[in-house]
């Protein structure tokens, strides 16, 4: 079996098994910690505007979710944003986009500094997104699925008056099941294709991915969004994988049975979202391409970044709605 991108996260059968999220603190109005303090004895941090900083990478689909949800809910002025460079070096995510190489609020050059000041024995991958407490420099959470749901539910006090309900109570059982399938076969499925180190593990992930995309196409043929007439968290989660599909996953992760542009319903659906305020302006195809092709050395040791594909289709009429 050939080398793995992340050997600690590769099973004996060559399948990619993602590490658990280490930091699972939650910001919530139910915290019993005083303002400026926290977390309380249940890991709950107090809800405060201007206190927490979302660290993201424009290339990362998990971080991209948080960036979109924060914007859709009108939390841009409430939670500040720090952006790491799309290319990691051996010390991990760097604040190399900031003028002097330091995040202007946290004063750190590498995200690992925040991880290690929270847990000095941390040995896992240092990942984005991370929500960091600007008062202590500690990581509150890198638990990306809970983070976005909490923005919808726990941060309601600071939502814009016209904020959408991205996680409606009555839809949650169906949404949770749907998002779990999308996670397994699509969001993480593309990584299971790309990071597989055995033919069998790749074949299994590839087959499940395209079967799920077919099922989603069928679902979306009869409705504008995954849960009906309104955008929900499920759409955000599917979008961040679809928008990377042709520029990264089709080539770099060998998800090449079909391109997004060859799946008419999903392609129109993705364009519809791309053209919706809060989505397209958060997409950076250059960062996405450079990150994937120049970061995973086991997969692309030359680090050559492809010039294609043609991206002009993203702004063409989608015909949905
Ligand atoms: N926190 C999750 C998902 C987030 C994640 O994997 N983010 C990627 C970027 S897309 C990352 O930060 N990777 C850092 C690394 O692999 O060292 C995990 O640990 O698997």
From TrEMBL:
Identify the residues that the record assigns to the GST C-terminal domain, covering every copy: 168-295
Molecular function in Gene Ontology: glutathione transferase activity
Q: Return the InterPro entries for the record.
A: Glutathione-S-Trfase_C-like, Glutathione-S-Trfase_C_sf, Glutathione_S-Trfase, Glutathione_S-Trfase_N, GST_Omega-like_C, GST_Omega/GSH, Thioredoxin-like_sf
* Region of interest: Disordered: 1-44
Where is this chain compositionally biased, Polar residues type?
1-10
Q: Which Gene3D superfamilies match?
A: 1.20.1050.10, Glutaredoxin (3.40.30.10)
Q: Is Disulfide bond tagged as a keyword? A: no
Q: Detail which positions bind glutathione.
A: 93, 125-128
Ordered alphabetically, the record's keywords are: Transferase
Q: Where is this site: Lowers pKa of active site Cys?
A: 249, 292
Q: GO cellular-component terms in the record? A: cytoplasm
Active site as annotated: 60, 191
* Name of this chain's protein: Putative glutathione S-transferase
Instruction: Record the organism.
Output: Micromonospora marina
User: Which lineage is the organism of this entry classified under, starting from the top rank?
Assistant: Bacteria, Bacillati, Actinomycetota, Actinomycetes, Micromonosporales
